[in-house]
Predict the 3D structure of the following.
Amino acid sequence: MDYIRQIEIKPGIETDQLIRMMDHCGFGARRLSEAADIYEEMLSEDYTKFLTLAGAMVPAGMRNIVSDLIRRGHVDILVTTGANMVHDIIECFGHHWVGDSEACDADLREEGVSRIYDVYVGDEEFVQFEELLQNILPDETGPFSGSEFLRILGSKLEDKKSILRSASDCDVPVFCPAISDSMIGLQAWLRRQVNKLSVDAFSDIDELVEICYNVDKAGILMIGGGVPKNFALQSMLVTPKSFDLAIQLTADHPEWGGLSGATLSEAVSWGKISSQAKQSVVYGDATITFPLLVSATLTRLQKRM
Amino acid sequence: MDYIRQIEIKPGIETDQLIRMMDHCGFGARRLSEAADIYEEMLSEDYTKFLTLAGAMVPAGMRNIVSDLIRRGHVDILVTTGANMVHDIIECFGHHWVGDSEACDADLREEGVSRIYDVYVGDEEFVQFEELLQNILPDETGPFSGSEFLRILGSKLEDKKSILRSASDCDVPVFCPAISDSMIGLQAWLRRQVNKLSVDAFSDIDELVEICYNVDKAGILMIGGGVPKNFALQSMLVTPKSFDLAIQLTADHPEWGGLSGATLSEAVSWGKISSQAKQSVVYGDATITFPLLVSATLTRLQKRM
Amino acid sequence: MDYIRQIEIKPGIETDQLIRMMDHCGFGARRLSEAADIYEEMLSEDYTKFLTLAGAMVPAGMRNIVSDLIRRGHVDILVTTGANMVHDIIECFGHHWVGDSEACDADLREEGVSRIYDVYVGDEEFVQFEELLQNILPDETGPFSGSEFLRILGSKLEDKKSILRSASDCDVPVFCPAISDSMIGLQAWLRRQVNKLSVDAFSDIDELVEICYNVDKAGILMIGGGVPKNFALQSMLVTPKSFDLAIQLTADHPEWGGLSGATLSEAVSWGKISSQAKQSVVYGDATITFPLLVSATLTRLQKRM
Amino acid sequence: MDYIRQIEIKPGIETDQLIRMMDHCGFGARRLSEAADIYEEMLSEDYTKFLTLAGAMVPAGMRNIVSDLIRRGHVDILVTTGANMVHDIIECFGHHWVGDSEACDADLREEGVSRIYDVYVGDEEFVQFEELLQNILPDETGPFSGSEFLRILGSKLEDKKSILRSASDCDVPVFCPAISDSMIGLQAWLRRQVNKLSVDAFSDIDELVEICYNVDKAGILMIGGGVPKNFALQSMLVTPKSFDLAIQLTADHPEWGGLSGATLSEAVSWGKISSQAKQSVVYGDATITFPLLVSATLTRLQKRM
């Protein structure tokens, strides 16, 4: 049995040096270190790589990490909430703002500011978003598949840092099962006053299940839980495959019984994750753990080259 | 200023007596008591009543509370995850089982058991679910709106305790923006191997926005967060209306920045909830707080009659 | 195997009826129901009954539940934080106030108000507390044992609803291992400017270990974690005994690794709790779960009579 | 107003580079970055520096970070739980072990292993701990002050990596208000069967209040909450001073109302923290955030030299 090695901090260490020292610690430190080992294996070997994205990651500053992972070839399938794609589009022409989580919300409304914890979005950003979206929504009425619809939007964005644009450039399908639950959905509703633009709600399953049937080995990194987590995991249910590597970065706990906080072990009972899978759940704020994980892993990949 | 009155417990008290004593307490007790006051107003006066349902509430035993609320006329719009509707259908013919949150998940898979924290579902239930669903899926190919699709399923269920059947009986629209993210979605995918059954992803917005335009006063009870919370709240964004009463029962915290844990005050900055709204967030396990809240409120309504 | 029975709510039900329906539910509902079964056994059979009290339970309105349990003979040993005893003494002559968790704390300080989440205490209460305490502090200098010191304070309080007075009246020892970490400690420091009042930090262990050696069967109800939880559990370490019944009501989670959130199963590995013990951890806000648990249990005890 | 700058990760970056990029992010990332700015100011300017330590930080591998901070002169006062000092002493001669949070606790007891989440301690470590402690407990009976008692223990430890030894070497007082609530307390109890070793429970207040009276500017870093947080903060109550800089790394949330999760703003209403103080609360697992914070800050200090 291995013993706990007390961390020793020296000035100037790299993130990966810190993560490696966490290897023989307890609690979250060890989980994060195990996650880095799993992610290194996922990105350096022949895995089909899923990334799921919930929580307000883009407004919080995590957008370019995602688009960079896509452009480096480290994402094969992205499953996301609609909101993250809305804010990805806003970042193409405008900004989110450093705000105050304690501000008076009635005053903010008066000033035309919407709050996402300690991040602000101005009404003017939403006006511009509306204009841009009406320009890039497809002229054809469809029905489109969800991923086709998002690929079209992405292909029309000019900002190469955009997640949607990067995914479109790299032929990475983006699945957003609750696309109607976002301002993209509301803009589609507006367009539908004019012509009957439509997205087929079930078509993404066709596409994702086919991908799952054809994977050899599969790995998944989940940021948060929610629909993205469930949709990616359930896609394995109708195939003989399951995930071989799985990481979740989350603030949800198993004790409440919900899917977002469910352990990855629970997913083994469903057959979504292999009983031999390597897995790690890192509890905490993903705006801290996600950059750390990616930073350590990219460092390792570079050293392997 | 009012002072804290220490609770005095006597044997045999009713749930509403307990909730009323919590009125002058601190922390969660006071929040729950305020939630009961708000819910009493919502159900006894002329509000359009939204209920949103996330988390595994049906497997945990909360299904008949929801269907009973619908049949009593206390729900005008239901927004839900797909999973809760899957498990609602399973309860029409079978059971969920009292399980063990510490069981070995690899063994459970061997035995054909899927685990939801401390609740089990057997593979046989899913086989029967598949048979039933293939029978009640519409023969027409659509495209259906999401709520129309769920109304058809509900109308074909025989169990009057079913949430979907109750909603269908009572003309309560059920919105499930991420319907593809559920076993109903997977069954639709199976059917689509035969004929091109489809649901239009954006059609629910048409219907829900129209409802929101026409509300006089609106109230919302949210169980958990996720897509149901966001979809119900965002529907107000494109109308001049906003929610006047709002309750959330949740285990998520605001400090992580995600929508599920966002305060109802944050929704004021977006214009989703009125700055004059009465609101209460009760933190904890909704399998405890939801039955308590409903029990106290129904008691009050009966006494008003 | 037992199946999940969906809860059915009727107006006017008693708290115990609700808790009993939770028996065949999942998640927190079942845990609470199991806790009630355990607490009923603990209070109705021949167990030595420990109660531990952390978190600001007294300011939040839970004080009289505790003192009532003591007077009914349902507590044999109380382990508490110092703060709860400070606020118990304040309630003897004054009040805590219904406050606002969103208030401006700098303004509150200007106004002489100290905030405990959404409960306020006025500077005048602390002035009166100081006067009262200087009157009831023992004239002798000691060294006292901790429980002896608190018994003296309790015996001099006039309010029979007081926890300290009730414990003194009923010969229930009160242990507060971190007594210096409270305003009682600060008042003792003031007195020590005059005479060398002292409490022997280790004497409580002598007394508690002797109690533990002599228990036949032992049960424990823990409100929150912290020092009270640890001190009560560790007292079994040096004896051949261990707890046979254990309940924890807590908002802490095991995943962070701390003692407060540690599972009761973890305590089995230490020998603090018997491997055959019946135990239940109920997650959530104890200002909701504690009154519910006590209410249901007192109802059951009355029906047994 | 400043805008959110999306993080860009390059391989090989230092921890401080990452933390600096978090400066213009949202949520936990920004809080951590602000904490680093505060800690840099605290360590580089003329502040009296408090460190409080709760949670099982030593078993999890954080011990040498603490002792190194002490030896570098970055801690003037340490307030800790007893357990962390017990495990600090164990590390002087033995080890904690990399364990499994899912292990069967009854089996572990059979094997003589005590579990702290995913860290193990063997019975043999506790036997050796007992022998060592009986050797280093003072022969005099006291009464000692708490900090004097711990200074004696520390001075007799040979391991210079020890927190207690480092504090003793550097004349840093260690306060442990609940010293009886630990295995050090149990060993003192054993000794007391022979001679009346005693610690005066209130003496630490004398010492700490005097320190607080004499501070010019004061800063505090709190790992977790509990007694260490409260004791350090309350010490300012009886002085005209208050903390000017404050950081808390915690997994507790304010919504439950307890002191451990209370915001630092709440402490402003009490006068413990100055209303002009710079403060930051970082939510998450301190085994991740504490090493990160220290690593970034030490890097900055080195660059200033």
